[in-house]
Design goal:
four-stranded parallel β-sheet; Rubrerythrin, domain 2; TIM Barrel; 17% strand; 2 domains; three-stranded antiparallel β-sheet
């Protein structure tokens, strides 16, 4: 759901071009230092024909960032709430609060979109609260999934995590025997095996710093991990 100024194409019976659409990512707010800076950049640099939809839950609460967005982007089309389940509480109540504050200030035309763990069970209540559109991803899958996210937590050595995340670089270790992950430990608390670094840095500022794994090595590792994984719920 990231907006871009370029056009995209869809391959089907015939190739056609569609105007870019979507919303800004959390990463934009984080690398630019805050929502004000990110909203100002969206307003200044995004092509005028692309609807502006601001993501409003990175560092402050949704209401605060929504009001910052309407101040920074005069032609704002909508706001998106991507509030993680661990922080949202009553999501419908948050939507009502944002809708109220926008309407109170004369922004009844600004729409509200929501995303993040949205499914058929949560949509009816959110519709009643005033949501205009939904970004649905995980729940469209045909099988149970493991919910996880990849987030920026540090920029040039400075902690910069969004709300609901722990800031700063993590020394993530992994047990080569049972696959357990831990932060900052030398031996596995379950089996006593020496932990190894969970990550390998292959690129450093665009340059290859370690030889890339071959397709065969990736396949073999995946096969080993699948054999070790339990199929029990």
């Amino acid at each position: 759901m990231t907006a871009a100024s370029a056009t995209v194409f869809v391959i089907g019976p015939a190739v056609s071009w569609l105007a870019a659409m979507g919303t800004m990512p959390h990463a934009l707010v984080i690398v630019m230092g805050g929502p004000r800076e990110a909203f100002a950049a969206v307003h200044k640099y995004l092509e005028a024909k692309i609807p502006r939809i601001a993501l409003v839950d990175t560092y402050y609460d949704e209401k605060t960032e929504a009001l910052l967005a309407v101040e920074a982007i005069p032609d704002l089309r909508g706001v998106r709430l991507d509030t993680p389940a661990s922080r949202r509480g009553n999501f419908a109540a948050i939507v009502r609060e944002v809708r109220w504050e926008l309407d109170l200030r004369g922004h009844k035309d600004v729409q509200i979109f929501v995303s993040g763990s949205v499914d058929e069970k949560s949509i009816p209540a959110l519709l009643a609260a005033g949501v205009d559109g939904f970004g649905v991803g995980t729940s469209l899958s045909n099988a149970p999934t493991i919910d996880f996210a990849m987030d920026i937590v540090e920029v040039e050595g400075r902690p910069a995590a969004k709300r609901g995340k722990f800031g700063g670089r993590k020394d993530l270790q992994r047990c080569p025997k049972d696959g357990m992950y831990e932060i900052g430990v030398k031996t596995c608390p379950a089996c006593g095996t020496k932990m190894t670094a969970a990550y390998t840095q292959y690129l450093d500022r665009g340059r290859i710093s370690e030889p890339l794994p071959t397709l065969d090595s990736i396949r073999n590792r995946t096969k080993r991990e699948v054999e070790r994984a339990s199929l029990e719920p």
